[in-house]
Every structure is written in structure tokens, then in C-alpha cells.
Amino acid sequence: MKKIDWYRDFVNLKYKPSKDDVVCLFRFEPSANISKTEAAGRIASESSAGTWTTLTSLPRTIEKVKARSFEIHGNFVKVAYPIDIWEPANIPQLLSGIAGNIFGMKALKNLKLMDVSLPVSYTKHFRGPEFGIDEIRKILKVRKRPITGAVAKPKIGWNASEHAKIAYETWMGGFDLVKDDENLTSIWFNKFEQRVRLCSKMRDKAEKETGQRKSALINITGETSQMIKRAKMLHDFGLEYAMIDVVTVGFSALQTLRETCHDYKIAIHAHRAMHAAFDRNPSHGLSMLFLAKICRLIGVDQLHIGTVVGKLVGTRHEVLDIKNEITQDNIRNKGSSMLDQRWNKIKPVLPVSSGGIHPGIIPDVLNIMGTDIALLVSGGVHGHPNGTRAGAMAAMQSIEATMQNVSLSEYAKSHTELGIALEKWGYFRPQ
Ligand code: CAP
Ligand code: MG
After folding, report:
1. Confidence class of residue 313 from pLDDT cuts 50, 70 and 90?
2. 132-425 has which CATH code?
3. CATH T-level assignment (fold) for domain 7-123
4. Relative to the CA of 357, which ligand 1 atom is closest?
5. pLDDT over 90 (residue 363)
6. Which of 55, 117, 414, 429 could form a disulfide with 23 if both were Cys (CB 3.0 to 4.6 A apart)?
7. Residue 25 alpha carbon to ligand 1 centre in Å
């Protein structure tokens, strides 16, 4: 039989990637009767210039547009893609290649895109975060401790005026930020416009009464042109942030909103709802590290990355790798799940730890994550027996105790709110 299969031409174990290549790291499991080399060839082929069979005519450029699987170690393969096949500043196109058809190939039992290393010739077309960690800290006038925030709970149900009152109580308890929940946008009993109006008013009142900076992460998630209008409204009301559910809106919309937020000089708080549909399975899908990298490149200022000890999945190793990726300038390959990355002039993103946190486990979170984070405590604030204000106070007290190296039980002797929180939750780790 004639040669009909073209895949092996996309494997070259002698190839040395050039400084302009986009390099991907995949974890792969071939299906039965498929060798590792064949499987690796299919990954490089289907994500770049190939098809399932040999072709009768080829463009002269073929060698310049082909990806090459150049390193196979166990179940990991590295693939190099020439820079010329990538349109500048087009994340959907990048995903249609390196995260596209390949996930559905019959020849692969499982495939996970672990990481991508992007050359400066690719990253230079993106803004990255508008503010980054230092400028966010300056805006909120919070120097060393974690920036604190709470999501009104229950997630949905309060009307706009009740919502604004909860926000006020949260700020008065010492918190810097209030945040909408990911599924709260604009619904008949809690309209976006009304929430913005009432929260801004309450924000001004809380700032006046406390002498501290306060802000709100109000969720603009929706259809793209609607989000643009909502971002303008946040700007008109003097709010510093827009919150976006970056995975559900899609990266095309996020790219558009990044430009809008640049025009209005507002920061983007990125919630990652739906990420686990792609990254939870260790064998198949995309890694959160990859999603986080795309978010930094496009330019969010704050990104949820997990807590390790809270209610949502994410091991210490994974969460800390993501934290390093979004905060450091120069990432050096430390193991099989991370590639090198030079971020050049792209600013760092503030890591957000959220989900199942309460005063009793704040020391654990800070010991793992450090204090250069945004810490969101929501159920663990509004579930305080004495209400939201006392809940926020208890969380602030827990942060103070941790930063002063005092045990919570000791600190609680002179801080009633913390004591009451510990009576309710103790050191319980939610699931
Ligand atoms: C937290 C939260 C957040 C998650 C997101 C929630 O509330 O508002 O959406 O933390 O997770 O609804 O669960 P609680 P992640 O503090 O009451 O748990 O940051 O891991 O993406
Ligand atoms: Mg939420």
C-alpha cells in the first residue's frame, strides 16, 4: 500500500526550537495500537499544518508552517510551532491551533495541554495587566497585608438595596473590597445599574466614615457590547474595577473588554468560573496554569487561583505554580509541568484566594500563599453569628494575628469577634 499517513513528518527529535517558536508541553496517552511517536506526530500535525493523509500538492512554505514534536519523555511531549503561523494579538486563533481539534482525535486516549512558552515576538502584541500588583496596592492604599474582599451571600437573592447594605457592613468591618458573585449580573430584582448606583453611594459613605479606601468588584459579565456599556457605567461612577467571568465570556470578549478597560483606566478582576470543566481532569483538557497565563497575557489585574485548603480543588503544587507564573517576570522550567516564560514588560497579576475561607483557616492560607494576595472571605464573613460587620472584623483580626505570629486562640482572648468565629468554625477545612 502507498504511504497514506502524513503524521510522522511532524516528529523531529533532532529539532532545536528557535527563540521565536511557540513551544507547548502536552501530556498524552496514545490509544491502543498507536505508538508514542505516531501520537506525537498527530498532535503536532493537527494543531498546525497537517491532515490525516499525504497531499498531492503542498505550498512552498510547508517547512516554515509545520509544527514539530521534538522531545518525548514518558507521557510528555514538547511541540514547537513557528511564529509565522500565529496572528498577532489573536488568542482565539492560538486556541484553535494548540487547544483545538487535537483533543478529539481518536488516536489519542487522553491529551492535556499543560503549558505554553510564548516568545517575546508573540507576547509583545498584548497589553498585559493595566495596573499590576503594586499599582492596585497604591489605589487601595494597602501596603503589606492581603487585600480583603467578601462576596455577598447567598450568591443570588438580595435586591440591590439589600446588597448595598451588606457591602456597607463589609466595608465597615474593615474590608477593602466587596465582590459580586459569578452568577449575579443584572436580574430583575437586582439590576446592574441600580447596584452600581447604590453601592457607589455606600462606598462613599464607608470611605468617609472610616477614612480608608474602599472599592467594589461589580460583575459586568454578559454579551460583549453589554459588557462595554457596563464598564463605562463603572467608570462614570468612579469605581476602580470591573469584574468579569473570564472563562464563560470567552477570550475574544476578554480581549475586547481589555481595550475598553484600558480606555476607562479600570482594573479587571477575573473570576474563573467554569475553569474546572477544562482543568480538573489530570489526564485531559487544559491546565489552569495555561488559562492563567492567557489571562495575564491579555491583561487581567486580579485572578482567582485557589486556596489549597478551601472548598475548591487545586493542590498546593498546582496553586503555587500558578501563583509564580502570574507574579514573576522570568519563569525557569522547574519540572515536567512548567515551561520557561519571559514576561518582559508584562506586569504581574494579583493572585486571588477564595472559596471556603473563614477566620480559623486564614493562617493556613497565608502560610501557603504569602500575604501578597487578595483574600476573599464570604460565607466565612456573612455566616458569623453576629453578622457581616463582625464577620469582616474577625477575618481582619485573623490576618493581624497571623502577620504578628500570634496564635488565633491567643489573639481571640482580646478580640471578641475572632473568638466567636472560632467557636462556630474552629479550624475546619470545608469540602
Ligand atoms: C466563594 C465564591 C467564589 C469561589 C471561586 C463561591 O465563596 O464566591 O466564587 O471562591 O472559586 O461562590 O464559592 P465562599 P475560585 O467564600 O463563601 O466559599 O476562586 O477557586 O475560582
Ligand atoms: Mg462565587
Report:
1. confident
2. 3.20.20.110
3. Alpha-Beta Plaits (3.30.70)
4. 16
5. yes
6. 117
7. 29
